[in-house]
Amino acid sequence: MAGETDLALLLTSMSPSLAQDEYVFTTVTDVKTALQTGISPKAMFVESEGTTLVLTVADTQLANLSFSGTYRCITLNVHSSLEAIGLTAAVSAALTKANISANVIAAYYHDHIFVPTDKAQAAMHALKSLTNEWLRRQ
Description:
Layout: H1 7-12, E1 16-28, H2 31-35, E2 43-47, E3 50-56, H3 57-62, E4 71-76, H4 87-97, E5 103-106, E6 111-116, H5 120-137
């Protein structure tokens, strides 16, 4: 099933939802050893310097990994195509306007935005306002 590419449709139907868990970004040089601790990464990305893991705070503590800052995950509940143009830019611009940093991970079905825990509610408001702006244009 192909995802949506129409920017107006993506922005008017993105229906953001905020996960309850708090997440952290951490890095390990030996991912196999880290995984043997029983952690379950939300996301993982291999870079030349090490492997970035996105974990719940509880998993990070279980594996005794260091981190700085906690984040909440906002999922855009629209099946966006990996070839869609402008969704990440529009979301980033709305969050930038609200002075909120964003770490975006595009997965097969949805985009996931990690925002600082203390700004999660403001981020939700900014994204809902973005949807409302686009709905008024219709």
